[in-house]
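From the shared-data thread, chain only:
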Amino acid sequence: LKPSERDPSASILIAELWQQAGLPDGVFNVVHGDKVAVDAILDSPDVAAVSFVGSTPIARYIHERGTATGKCVQALGGAKNHAII
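Structure, as C-alpha cells:
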C-alpha cells in the first residue's frame, strides 16, 4: 500500500492491525515515497494489479503506465480517499 505523503496515518494503522492479527511479515507492506516509488510499483513485474484513488490527471497517468506493463489497473480520478473503506 502506497499512501498519500500528506497523511499516511490510516495506512500505518492498517499495517499495525494486520501485524497484530498475525499476518506474516512481507504479506502486507506500506511503501512511503513520491513519484519515484509509484513508478517503481508500476514498472515492477512482481506487482500484478494497482488500485488508485485521487486526482484525474494522476489517475490517467497510473492507468496508462500500469496497463502498458500488463497490470490490471483500477484508477478513480476526481476523488479523495484518506482511508481504505
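The beta strands are 49-54, 72-77.
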